[in-house]
Amino acid sequence: MKSLVKYIPENLQLTPRWEEISQLIMHKDMSFDAEYVIRLKRTDARSDDAQEIEFDLKEVVLPPNVVHEKTISLASRFDFVAAIVLVTDALMQKSGNAKSRGSHVRLAICILIKFFEFIWLRDKFHISDLTSEDFDEFAKAFAKGGWAEALKIEDRLKSAISANPELVNELVRRKGKSNLHINRNGLKRLVGSNLHSNDINDYFRKLVVESLNGAVLESTSFSKKKPRPMGVSTISHVLAILNNLFDLPNSFGINYVPYPDSRRLASHLGVPPTVTKNMGVREATAVVGHAYRWLYEYGDDIVALIAGACAQVVEAHKKKRKMKGLNLDRWLASSTIARDLEHKIGVKIIGVDSPRNRKHGVLTLRDVLLLFFTACFKLVAMMNARRKDEIIHPKYGLHYGFTKVIDEELAIFQGNFYLEKTLKDYLEFYVNRTTRDVALYLEKIQDCFEEVNVELGRPSQSEQLWSERSLFSYQRFSKAHGISETINSYLYDPTDPQNAGYKFHRLAFEGESLITPHPHMFRRMYSLIFMYQHEIPSMLALRQQLDHRSLKSTQVYLNDPITRIERESIGRKLGVSAQKRAEIFALHLRGVQEEIDLIRDEKLIEIILSIIEGQPTSGGYPKFIKKFYARISKKLDFSQLKNEAAAKEVARIVSEKGHSPNPSREGTCMAGGLRRSSASRCRDDDGVLRKENANVTLCGKCAFGFLNEAYVNNLEEDLTLSQRHLQSGHLQGLEEKRTVIDIANLKSMIAYHRDRLDQSRPLS
Q1: Could you give the number of structural domains in the chain?
Q2: What is the pTM of this model?
Q3: Looking at the chain, which terminus has fewer C-beta neighbours within 10 angstroms, N or C?
Q4: What's the CA gap between 468 and 568, in Å, rounded?
Q5: Do the Cβ atoms of 650 and 632 come closer than 8 Å?
């Protein structure tokens, strides 16, 4: 059991009224027993994990105050216990079966515990005694400096150490020449607080500077240190949790809402949220290109090394060696595959799984495996706009066999993803070949570990539930056991220097600190690739899902009346609502489309800026923008604006007229949402745009066509492929004549656009 506090006060006297509280619990996945332990069933637990979260309220303390000279257990305060249990029950009911239910409720319990510590310090002995002024005081104190400020940790530390100076020797000892090792649980006992030991430890370090003989020295830097104000979202969340004290069963809470508008109050008290730096094209290119390198250039070598290491363990077992992994380091040192992989990566590989080799510029075999996991994680996230836990969560992430082949020749594959925010169940999506290849590589690695487990008589992973055979799980290498029997899960943390996520980005950015790609950025990266796939030479083009020009096409497909009858009949047989699943799928795609629309707006500004600055461009759209810019310049004063600001203003105006970029291999169509236009070359006799007729000749000189250097390079690649196809001798009749015409058109358009690019000049 994981305790919040590691000791139980000696003066604990429990009330026998636990059963009265227990009878008020409504949620089937929650219990409260005579030992004052709250048990919550986990929704995110695998079959081989602990199935419950436990909170022992006996181990939660209330500090000394005006009445109590020593700490007492919160479990001895019946109304506090009742409030925690009943709020927990209410939150369990609100959360349903959400994957994050456990972590959400756990955090809420911790917030309530620390709040009761706050009111206890203010000599408030019953929840019913609390006034709106008490809640206001808490909100101000918490906003000023978090829990450490609200719970007066600095003052309590100084007071406790002054009263017991000899305890410093017990709490502190030197570790090395300069580092101090602090007994954190002892420090919590000294203060009598439920605050996280790291937070108390930070304050304590400032108080004890040099002396270990019990003398407390005031740190000048500490006295000048100001509390760190809390952000709006943090304050808002804490206040919202405390609102649950209102109207609890049997009048255990309060009869008013303490924070009627918690968000507005948080906005008034907290630090305004900062704008998170978004992933740009340069960063996305580096990450995608590096991830592809790991999959397609290093993947076979990595699988071969894992297979080789596992084979060494199996061989040692067959020879009945006690130390099944004793020769692994020696085997790796002599492996030609490892040397080839070192040359490709540019980093030396030393040891299979030894912490002593964790130094700059050196990797272990486990590091290599986790870096490969990182590359696979990123590719799936970016190619499919998935959330982090929908890929790497031990229970809800990608599982063995999550992809299937619809048509290998046409490269049509499906992937079974869990939708954690809407459906809260699995739903099949079409995926591209990269996602399919990721699955195949990861399955090969799982097969390597499975072979060892079977040979050593361990439980077979194939006997687990299909959804729990995580593709991002692994077993550590060991000198004693060959590979550990424990199944480990891959974790992604780009901020931890020891984590593979951090190392991956250092390699991808070649040591530069461009940006930290947090998981929430992957939808943006998906959208960046979607919009720039034809312009970034170093990035392999993303084949759009279902070969549709827009994700809206997928949405239309799912809700198409022609297929509805068939879907509903299938749904009835499966016992699910096909229409409901289609609506959820459409909702998911709308969320992705919103991010794409934001990138499209940025792309529009970038295109107009390139035209205004006179960068090499071609197509009819640069001519249109130059004329439009010159015309509105007479009405709008751009003289005081920088080019970027002017581009944003022009983009705003043309966007209101319906213009927006829609990329294709032949160029970017700027017609956007326009339905009719006399300027479009794909219009019919009624002036309606027929974008389905788009081709390089039609769009090349259209008023809505835009090309840059990258697009002309695409056309030259198409010309080369067409010429090779013609020279192969396989074409006959009409197909051969059509290819000859296409080649002639391509040559003409390439010459036209090259000339336009050369003639591009800055505006006068």
Answers
A1: 3
A2: 0.78
A3: C
A4: 29
A5: yes
